[in-house]
Amino acid sequence: MARLLHISASPRGARSESLALAATFLEVYRERHPEDEVVEWDLWDGSLPEFGPAAAAAKMDVFAGLEPAGAGAEAWRAAAGTFRRFADADKYLFSVPMWNSGVPYVLKQLIDVISQPGMVFAFDAELGYTGLVTGRKAAVLYTSAVYGEGRGPAFGADFQAPFFGNWLRWAGITDVTEVTFRPNLATTDVETRRARAHADAAEAAKTF
Length: 208
Description:
By secondary structure, the chain is an alpha/beta fold. The chain is 39% helix and 20% strand. The protein has a single domain (3-206), classed as Flavodoxin domain (Rossmann fold), CATH 3.40.50. The chain has a five-stranded parallel sheet with strand order 2-1-3-6-7, with helices on both faces. The protein starts with a strand and ends with a helix.
């Protein structure tokens, strides 16, 4: 039995295109893998800790080989607990809408909280970074309202998929399936594009 963790970065509930794609994906996935556990993590549920001055100081203490103390130790425990919640999965499904050409800030917050030495990565002064979240696979559902491949700069730019895809690879997750529905607004063929995106999500789930 495997554990699939669905991490949602959309706050729009029933009106969310990325969550609708996730529902299609998960329906097919559950049919194909009835023995697997599916866990939902809504990043807007208030459970993400802050990553402020104390946490940043703790991170640099760990880099220097020191033990965080005081407020830093407390912040480090919160980061470690969040990482364990993330790492306790065999597979990931991410629903990621585009915000201002990038990703929602709660997803960036998750990344900043868990991207710590000894958790997501190791570092060597000569060899650089090594991702530690290995042996897992991810499916990413990217949506955007206006941006779309081939559209001009007046329709925005893509710092969504390049940023998040790079973070996954940097963390050690190299088996990545992507489904896109971009754009899903301000286009004459939106229903055709929506149907295609849901078909792609269902197809991706069959072999995930």
